[in-house]
Design a protein that fits this description.
Layout (H helix, E strand, L loop, with lengths): L1 H10 L42 H12 L8 E4 L6 H15 L3 E6 L13 H4 L3 E7 L6 H16 L3 E6 L10 H6 L3 E4 L5 H15 L5 H9 L5 H16 L7 H8 L6 H9 L2 H17 L1
Parallel strand pairs: 1-4, 1-5, 2-3, 3-4
Helix pairs in contact: 2-3, 7-8, 7-9, 8-10
Length: 293
């Protein structure tokens, strides 16, 4: 808490800033676009800066410190699983925490046609300090022109625009959206390396007070074929097993657990209390059953 307060003070979170983004009361807000609320999900507290996202993280920090200046619009580009949506959400929450105006976060995958774009955006955009779009490359051509008009209007009103994309704007179909985003500042995020995933897992172990050996952590990092989300899901399986009493000592135990061959503590205790004769008889019966099959 002490370091958090110090960082907030250095970033200017506690300073009163005069802003031109005067906000409407909650009962006067239009139904669309959606106004972001404070949340603890996907914030900088759970973000892990590694070489593969360092450039993007630095750009986001500069954008938060001086919004709507040089990095406007700012585009986070990368493949699936590199953390684009997490960083976008963290930036949006940080801007909202500053309390300089409304924050709008639009998930483009939910926009199916032009009918969903209500006309209330012209009233709400001037009261925003950030207009964010997740997966902007998914915008269908039917609404690309109007999205381009919204972004252009926000830029003219001095609102910071931030978006994520899987592809470079130069590859998009020509539209108003293409026109306003082709000159955006682009920062690229890449797939995390094994070393970055290991660093991330060590941090998770520390936060969960779980003691795992280096080779066990390395086994978790190499088990899934994917990015942050897949590794987090794998770590959660191991963490729940450890917290449930499983004896995870090395990489072999991790692989056994993930392949569902790890013996549970109850079964292990039952085997230890079993006599040699009963154990041998059980093995013989198992072999006979397999031979019959």
């Amino acid at each position: 808490p002490i370091w958090s307060a110090l960082l907030d003070r250095n970033r200017g979170y506690e300073q009163e800033v005069v802003t031109t983004h005067q906000r409407l009361e909650s009962d006067e807000l239009p139904a669309w676009p959606p106004i972001l609320k404070l949340s603890t999900h996907n914030t900088f507290q759970s973000w892990n800066t590694v070489p593969e996202n360092l450039q993007a993280t630095t750009a986001i920090e500069r954008m938060i410190d001086k919004p709507a200046t040089n990095l406007n619009p700012l585009l986070l580009m990368g493949e699936s699983g590199v953390g684009r949506s997490h960083l976008l959400s963290a930036a949006a929450q940080a801007m909202l925490f500053r309390d300089h105006g409304h924050v709008v976060l639009i998930h483009v995958s939910t926009l199916l046609d032009e009918d969903i774009l209500a006309k209330g955006w012209r009233e709400i955009i001037p009261q925003c300090c950030l207009l964010a779009f997740d997966d902007l490359h998914l915008a269908p051509l039917t609404i690309a022109s109007e999205l381009g008009m919204i972004i252009d209007f926000a830029l003219n009103m001095g609102v910071q625009v931030l978006a994520t994309t899987k592809s470079d704007p130069s590859t998009w179909e020509i539209s108003r959206l293409w026109e306003v985003m082709k000159g955006a500042t682009i920062t690229t995020m890449t797939t995390p390396s094994r070393a970055s995933l290991v660093t991330h897992l060590r941090r998770n172990c520390s936060m969960r007070s779980i003691l795992l050996s280096d080779d066990a952590i390395a086994a978790i990092a190499t088990f899934p074929d994917g990015g942050w989300r897949e590794v987090d899901a794998t770590f959660e399986r191991v963490a729940l097993a450890v917290e449930g009493g499983a004896d995870i000592n090395d990489a072999a135990d991790v692989r056994d657990l993930l392949s569902e061959t790890l013996v549970s503590p109850d079964v292990e205790m039952a085997l230890e209390n079993m006599s040699i004769e009963d154990l041998a008889e059980g093995i013989v019966d198992l072999v006979r059953a397999r031979v019959v099959q």
